[in-house]
Amino acid sequence: MKTITSRDNPLYKDLKHLAGSSQARRKAGQTLLDGVHLCQSYLALRGAPLHCIVAEGALANPEVADIIMQCESAHAYVTAMPDALYNALSQVEHGVGLMFLIATPVLAAPGVLTASAVLLDNLQDPGNVGSILRSAAAAGITQVYCSSGTAFCWSPKVLRAAMGAHFVVDIHENVDLAELVKAAAIPVLATSGYATQRLYDVDLARPVAWLLGHEGQGVAHDLLALATHQVVIPHLGQIESLNVAACAAVCFFEQLRQIQSK
Amino acid sequence: MKTITSRDNPLYKDLKHLAGSSQARRKAGQTLLDGVHLCQSYLALRGAPLHCIVAEGALANPEVADIIMQCESAHAYVTAMPDALYNALSQVEHGVGLMFLIATPVLAAPGVLTASAVLLDNLQDPGNVGSILRSAAAAGITQVYCSSGTAFCWSPKVLRAAMGAHFVVDIHENVDLAELVKAAAIPVLATSGYATQRLYDVDLARPVAWLLGHEGQGVAHDLLALATHQVVIPHLGQIESLNVAACAAVCFFEQLRQIQSK
């Protein structure tokens, strides 16, 4: 384990830059995972990080000590620093004092849709994007495609909300969703409050692609027109719409219910 | 319509205090609804506010003008103020410049649970609480009971996330959930990742109470032990849990599916 003591240390300066700038993370193809849960998930599912960074005040924490041991066994760099330096990097208030520097995965260009997938058109809220990734992973859907207007998936807020889903799902960003939908080999289902076909009346016990849209405007009209089905989640009462992440969960788990009841 | 021009105006000082302090809102039994959508919903579902507050820059907006007209027809106070004063009140960035001051509803002490309900035990995140209120309202569930540790439902973040659900749902706060569950006349279902009974194997085509817990720890153990059923949402893949608001949506809409397919 090495120790950093100065804000002028080159590694520290790099980390500070990454921590503070979404553009820097995109450009470097790297991001930071903050907290024990995300780091444990990464170790279990993807292996060692590029670098394990720990606050000195966290060294005595048994979960942190165990993670450091695993990183050192895998010959990953481990660097400790004073709590004040660590806290200037971290976006987590009252966090435990542990983060991983990781490379964001580089994926091949998206091919033809053949397996169940989620398509996110212009989703804005990082919490919604993270929750959708988490629900998809829990429902066994491992392909995610995001339009260029969708929140950057490897941002700290999306990572926190997804609770490790990033490490079991292939996330394609900046995708031309219209091209993807046109070429799809499976049905593409868009949810819409104006649709007349009920979600429950569609055969979901097969691979389908779920097309979900912007929190306020929904799926863009031209994209919606390309979908194989437009479906509605039947509702009661005077509130006519659902949060997009809630809507996604209902769709994914209805698909899983149909698959499992076959 | 009156106009405020000074930060020393007594109404402005009251509004500023309410806008900045959750404690002040609780104590006054009043809150602020910010934005056209929430104000329109309130007018449609609950009627006129105590006071309609508008930024001078928003007066030309046709939706705002329509809302002001409705307020004046109902003899509600309408007060305009310079944009700078309004923006110092509002928590919405780039908002349209309209808010309502309303009284938060005063409800009778909770009786015995007989209608479908949602019980929130120590939920922390305002976005989750708001999403759950919205899903409940859309699924036709109109009774919500919150433990004292749950996020205050009439805060701006919860109001924004619930998109008007507050105005069709009865929200009881600071409720002793253990007493409520013990006396319930309907089954109380808690979701738990450790449960063995599948959500889909329970008869939900009847009134039930959904017990949902803290984002990290779930429902408190003593409370969980009082539930009639502990149910699990079957999942696939390596991610074993769902966001609590996603979980709530799956439960509420499975109940509605069963009710509608009877």
Give a structural overview.
- Two copies of one chain form a homodimer.
- The first copy, chain A, has helices at 10-20, 22-28, 36-45, 62-73, 83-89, 126-138, 156-162, 177-183, 221-224, 244-260, and strands spanning 2-3, 30-34, 51-55, 77-81, 98-103, 117-121, 143-146, 170-172, 188-191, 197-198, 209-213, 229-232.
- The first copy, chain A, is built from ten helices and twelve strands.
- The longest helix of chain A is centred in the last third of the chain and has 17 residues, at 244-260.
- The model of chain A has no long low-confidence stretch (mean pLDDT 94).
- Chain A has two domains: 2-103, 2-Layer Sandwich (60s Ribosomal Protein L30, Chain: A); 117-260, SPOUT methyltransferase, trefoil knot domain (Alpha/beta knot, 3-Layer(aba) Sandwich), CATH 3.40.1280.
- With 262 residues, chain A is of the alpha/beta class.
- The interface between A and B is large, with 39 and 39 residues.
- Chains A, B: This is RNA methyltransferase.
- Chains A, B: One of its GO terms (molecular function) is RNA binding.
